[in-house]
Write a structure and sequence with these properties.
Distance between the termini: 30 Å
Strand content: 35-45%
Number of strands: 11
Number of helices: 5
Largest sheet: 5 strands, antiparallel
Order of helices and strands: EEEHEEHEHEEHEEHE
Shape: elongated
């Protein structure tokens, strides 16, 4: 894979693991920001408020990761969940595992296996897709440049998100990260002003 390609899941999925009366419900979500991931974790904590633990791990972008054992012994929940994200080579994903305690302690090894297996089941039940890291670029230009600008956008395989055509035109696009600087150079040559 190129450095602006990544694998994620196409839509939310669920998994389940049972051991000695304990139930481990797993939920995998495609996520694109830390705020989105935090909101889903909070929602799961409210939805399963009677569960003892709400452990999770996420990987967003190239470097944003987080793991939580949520009261389980250190390293027995968040790390095994995150390990499944890594071994499946996924990014922009959150996995939450909700544990209902069954009355029998599983021990450190048992917990690691339980959280790992529950996370793996949620991934196995998901559809893995290849996506691109993209940049959002906004720019303005005079109406007389419209044809040249539109041809340049089309050649670059960028997607138009918003457009407003008047005497002065504004367009917002999403483009593959590795193509961004080249497109900005071409747009600047056509007299476009990049909007930060």
């Amino acid at each position: 894979m190129q450095n602006d390609e990544y694998q994620t899941i196409s839509s939310p999925s669920e998994g389940l693991y049972k051991e000695k009366g304990s139930r481990f419900l797993s939920f995998a979500y495609p996520v694109f920001s830390v705020e989105e991931a935090k909101a889903i974790v909070e929602q799961k904590q409210k939805e399963f408020h009677d569960a003892r633990h709400h452990c999770f791990a996420w990987s967003i972008g190239h470097s944003e990761t987080r793991m939580s054992d949520d009261g389980e012994p250190s390293g027995t929940a968040g790390k095994p969940i995150f390990g499944q994200i890594l071994s499946a080579n996924l990014s922009n994903i959150l996995i939450v595992v909700v544990r209902y305690f069954g009355g029998i302690k599983l021990g450190t090894g048992g917990l690691i296996v339980a959280y790992k297996t529950a996370a793996a089941d949620a991934i196995a039940n998901a559809q893995v897709v290849l996506r691109l890291y993209e940049d959002i670029v906004s720019f303005s230009f005079p109406y007389l440049s419209l044809n040249d600008v539109m041809k340049t956008i089309k050649k670059s395989n960028a997607n138009i998100i918003e457009q407003n055509f008047d005497n002065n035109c504004n367009i917002k696009i999403s483009i593959r990260k590795s193509d961004t600087s080249n497109l900005i150079l071409k747009l600047t040559d056509l007299g476009c002003s990049i909007i930060e």
